[in-house]
Amino acid sequence: MRVEFELNGIPQSVDIEPSLSLGDLLKKQGVISIRNGCDGQGSCGVCSVLIDGKTVNSCLLLAAQVHGKQVHTIEYLSHHRELSAIQSAFVDAGVVQCGYCTPSMVLATHELLQRHANPNRAQIKDALSGIFCRCTGYEQYYLAVQLAARRVRDPEFTTPVAPEFRDDLRVVGKVKPKVDGPRLVRGERAFVEDRLLPGSCHLKMLRSPHAHAYITDIDVSAAEAVPGVVLVVTHKNAPDVFYNQAGQGFPEPSPYDRKLFGEKVRHVGDRVAAVVAETPEIAEKALKKINVQYEILPPVLSIEEAEADTAPLVHNSLQEYVVGEPEGLDQSHVDPRDGKIIYQFPIHANPRKNIAASVSGGIGDIERGFELADHIFEQEYRTSQIQCTPVEPHVVYTRMEGNRLIVHASTQVPWHLRRIVARVLGIKENRIRVIKERVGGGFGAKQDIVLEEVAAYCTWVTGRPVFFRFTREEEFIASRTRHPMKIKIKLGAKKDGKLTAMKMDLKANTGPYGAHCLTVPMNGCGKSLPLFLCDHVLFNVTSYYSNIPPTGAYQGYGAPQGSFALQTAIAEFADQLGLDHLEMIEKNRVHDGSMLEILRCLGEGREGVSQAVSSCGLGPALRRGAELIQWGKREEHNDPDIQIGKGLSTVQQGSGLPGLDAANATVSLLGDGTLMLLSGGADLGTGLDTVTTKMVAEVLHVPMEDVSLLSADTDTTPYDDGAYASSGTFFSGSAAMKAAEGLKRKILETASAMLGEPLEDLFLEYPSRVVGSTGTLSFEHISRHAQSGTGRGQLSATANFTTDKAAFPYGAHFCQVAVHTKTGEITIQKYYALQDCGTPINPELALGQMYGGALKTIGHSLFEELVLDEHGKCLNPNLMEYEVPMIGDVPEDFKAELIETNDPFGPFGSKSIAEISCNGAAPAIAAAIHDAVGVWIRSWPFTAEKVLRAMGRIE
Fold first, then answer.
1. Do domains 2-76 and 201-350 have the same CATH topology?
2. Category of 608 on φ-ψ map: left (φ > 0), alpha (ψ -120 to 50) or beta
3. Poorest-confidence range of 79-83, 473-477, 673-677, 783-787?
4. What residues form DSSP beta bridges with 532?
5. Beta bridge pairs of residue 343
6. Fewer beta carbons under 10 A from the terminal one: N or C of the chain?
């Protein structure tokens, strides 16, 4: 059938299939800004377009329905690359993070402003209510839309969007446009899906319907016979190579316990076969023709089931150690179908008991600590399995270029990805180039290699370009989730609340494979225990294999679970002692200069190092939060069935991994005096590219626009471990700053020779010049001279940054809840996050990280949970049934504030910001619920049913 419509002002007349969706039609017409986050369910809103001025989800509309209508996409709003008032407002307000949902947000705002010239908060909330954004926490969108409304009438209008810091600096600590913001608000090519070339193949995966089973037979002949099928891969023809999917520094503290395809499947959704075909439809057709026979085994789904004496073994595998094989290792009765596990070094695993990893440690004498106590408290807490849900699912595009494999990836770890793919394929790393495209949300899930190695293998074998994108269901069942944990806390204290002993027994459900099986649970202890000063501390960590969907890294990396348990225990203990919660925290909290001895026991499977706290804004954060929430003042609701309560928590994180992480950068002076920065850092939307650009501009006294950046390309930029452990600003930023300082020295040396003046008499002056007593030289003049036949060549400097010093960010989160005593419904009325990140390099983007992290964990505190049936099948594998926070879930009074400190080890005094934001919500909300109705909820999520049961209203 033929459909005629107008697309961005241009008439269209197209022959279509009646079943074609509008979104697919627009893609065929070359519109790249239409995104896909929900596979046509209409639950994410990132495919939004305007039809006759109304915002609609293009995935839900048939193409035939736009006959005779006007369709507008984001491409229409920019005239010759000039940003519209809305687009510029979004960039200036700092709401553009990953950018995957940004075009839809802009279009929805465009429609809103056509209806309401000065929209209020309720109208903005309604207009944006259908668009899912996992990054920002939505709060700053209110300011962005109001700024846009003013700018529509007055293009020059501006208003402060965030506080600024460091009067002694020009760009660091100041609100400046995100360097990739304009590109993202215009909807330009940026993501992996935008790189597909004509003739590319599509990969689809056949996945196990069983949580635990052996594949006894698989017949792919009928699938291979389907016209258009290029390759079918199973365990029979895949590489016999064991590896670890976690993107961690080598040697990894995670076991090599999986192959590309195995004879045993260990979770519902595990890989069985891959089909590569000319079209996705052909690949799907071929999948249905694969015949698989299984020997079904009992699934292991919980920690209790995994640790039972009679538990089925998830990995009855042969064990190999590169170093440190334990004496008397029992290798009898292994099943060859289970394969093997390779350990780079001991992590105290015992797969014969389903133990993936374990570790114990402490300081002082725990028994003595409890003997000194006047009171002892003991309680158990549980956390649930949470999906990362980046709006852009996992996606990769692989192709050959000569004899080299090119991987376009949405990844946090380009170099780790290259190393792992090289191992799987059995080739050298120089044969592989990884290009990190813009990442449509990572949050830890894209630290792991969960699909890239399959596509890479298929391209390497066939020579064909291969596109592989997870469906939203695959994202739930085969991606990465937050580890469920069971944590027992035992505390001892004097009558006045001074802690004498802290004991933490943490058991984690690591799922079918061991990626992050040691480090995430250890972080549960490592980012919670050091918040409190105590002479006698003991922790025990055990991580269990099971058959739930895979777990891994998720923003906070174990700290949200550990923080929930320990912080809630402190709150409960204070209540038991008759002390104010804030008072007990003040009696025991960390301060500037505190020596954190416990950290020498928390070294990711290796020896750690005690660290002194070099800067700590926790005190100011607590004071400011208490002032905002009016701590100690009892609030009353006009409905007698609703009770109001207040709660708080303290939070701590790290800034990368001292002694383990490394980053590199190169800065070069170009002929006209501008600069090129090559950074290995992987920006996930957090603003890292802007951080490094600002630091170079600051050191070299140049305008930001004079610094261009290439980042995270394994061919063209220097090595960087990647974006995890909140390392970006501290490690990648420090490398960029050091490289700029190196170039500064070379510029001054060259100018010294040109002017005939001593080096110490010269200095840099904004913009881009060297000043001496006899004259001034522009960077362009210096560069042209250096590049000439009589010069020293192009001026360039490369720097590496490693350190054994830590910079700890701190914070305090406060909230006020209203609990309905008859329904159990919990409403968060106020939420205040106060955080110390040293000098905020990008203040407006730092606030966005805080809002986003806080709202994520408000979500998993109140309603997010991956639900499995008794067979291990996920019952809510989509965004319709798995509830994620939308703009309607934002607390009415939601504030993030930056507490400035100046850390001596961080670049320009900075520390990390993103992960710490996830650690405070659960314990603060739990304490507020207790303050409201007198009950403690000790497991996620805090449902109305749990509240009513705790109150004795239901059984």
1. no
2. beta
3. 79-83
4. 589
5. 321
6. C
Q: What's the mean pLDDT in 212-221?
A: 99
Instruction: Tell me the average pLDDT across 172-193.
Output: 97
The answer to whether the CB of 102 falls within 8 A of the CB of 96 is yes
For the chain, state the CA radius of gyration.
28
State how far the Cα of 619 lies from the Cα of 206, in Å rounded to an integer: 54
Q: Where would I find the H helices in 207-267? A: 221-224
> CA–CA separation, 370 vs 489, rounded Å?
13
The CA–CA distances, whole Å, from 330 to 320, 348, 350, 937 equal: 11, 14, 10, 42
**pLDDT value of position 790:** 80
Calculate mean pLDDT across residues 479-494: 99
Task: Tell which CATH architecture fits domain 2-76.
Answer: Roll (3.10)
Beta bridge partners of 800: 664
pLDDT at residue 791, rounded to an integer = 82
Nearest-CA neighbor of 394 among 464, 459, 477? 477
What are the pLDDT digits (tens) for 605-615?
A: 777 889 999 99
Q: Does residue 859 surpass a pLDDT of 90? A: yes
Residues 6+ apart with CB under 8 A from 59: 21, 22, 23, 36, 38, 39, 40, 41, 42, 47
* Percent above pLDDT 70 for the chain: 100
Residues in the chain: 955
Q: Edge-to-edge, what's the strand order for the sheet holding 10-15?
A: 10-15, 2-7, 70-72, 48-51, 54-57
CATH architecture of 663-801: 2-Layer Sandwich (3.30)
Question: What percent of the chain shows pLDDT beyond 90?
Answer: 97
Strand 48-51 and strand 355-363: pairing?
unpaired
Burial class (CB in 10 A: 0-12, 13-18, 19+), 503: buried
Tokens of 411: 């990844």
* Residue 501 near residue 490 (C-beta atoms within 8 A): yes
pLDDT of residue 80: 84
Q: Euclidean distance between the first and final Cα of the chain, in Å?
A: 60
The structure's pTM equals 0.97
Strand-strand pairing, 70-72 and 2-7? parallel
Which helix (DSSP H) or strand (DSSP E) does residue 523 occupy? helix 519-526
Does the structure show a pLDDT above 80 at 878? Answer: yes
DSSP characters over 849-901: HHHHHHHHHHHHHHT----B-TTS-BS--STTTS----GGGS-SEEEEEEE--
The one-letter amino acid code at 762 reads L
Distance CA 871, CA 874 (A): 9
**Tens-digit pLDDT profile for residues 726-740:** 999 999 999 999 999
Fold exhibited by the domain 201-350: Aldehyde Oxidoreductase; domain 3 (3.90.1170)
Mean pLDDT score of the chain: 97
Q: At what angle do helices 688-700 and 733-755 cross, to 10 degrees?
A: 20
| Residue 248 confidence (pLDDT) | 96
pLDDT at 696: 99
**Helix, strand or coil for residue 563?**
helix
Q: What are the pLDDT digits (tens) for 530-540? A: 999 999 999 99
Interior/surface letters 287-326, b for 16+ CB within 10 angstroms, e for the rest: bebbebebeebebbbbbebbeeeebebbbbbbbeeeeeee
Q: Tell me the C-alpha to C-alpha distance, in Å, between residue 403 and each of 197, 431, 432, 603, 841.
A: 18, 7, 9, 40, 42
Q: Give yes or no for residue 604 having a pLDDT over 80.
A: no
- One-letter amino acid for residue 156 of the chain: E
Q: What is the 3-state secondary structure (H, E, C) of 650-715?
A: EEECCCCCCCCCCEEEEEEECCCCCEEEEECCCCCCCCHHHHHHHHHHHHHCCCHHHEEEEECECC
Q: Following DSSP, what letter does each residue of 803-822 receive, concatenated?
A: -S-----EEEEEEEEEEETT
* Domain residue limits, the chain: 2-76, 201-350, 663-801
How many degrees, rounded to 5, is the angle at CA 920 between CA 819 and CA 654? Answer: 175
Three-state secondary structure string covering 691-703: HHHHHHHHHHCCC
